[in-house]
Structure formats: structure tokens, C-alpha cells
Amino acid sequence: MTNSAIQLMQIDIESFGQFIQKLVREELEKIIPAQSQEKEFYTREETAKFLNVSLTTLFHWNNDGTLKNTKIGNRVYYSKEEVFSKLKQVS
User: Among 3, 18, 53, 77, which lies 20 to 30 A Cα-Cα from 10?
Assistant: First the structure.
């Protein structure tokens, strides 16, 4: 059995929020440069997986202007810049 200690400390909500933002930003910076060398456009499925949302959410985001898509032929794509700008807005 391992003995582990739990430490509790008080922290104001603003500092906690900044701490969470810093952690998320660091993780996104690890992901974004690795994928920025890939392709210019992502399919709906790739975009949904990357943003961790459903295809229905992407459809609604397109309709309300949150994330614009690009149609090439009969296929729907999302530009790399649009996807990354959405990620940066969230973080």
C-alpha cells in the first residue's frame, strides 16, 4: 500500500482560471505545431474528431457563422486556419 498525502490550499477563482488556461495552452501548443505541417483542409470527420465535437455541432457552427466550411465539389472541408483560430478562441 502506498502512502500518499493530499494537500489542500486556498486559491482564488481568477488564479485557478489562469492556471487552467496555462495548462490548456501548453497542451494545445504541443498539438498544433505537430499538425500544422499536415494539410490545408480537413474533412468534416477529421474536424469533428480534432475539435472533439459531433458532425451535428459542425453543421450548427457553420449555420451560425462560428466555423465556416468550404465546399469543393460535393464535399465539405474546413480550412486549417479556421480550425486553429477556433481552438485559439476557446483557450
Answer: 3
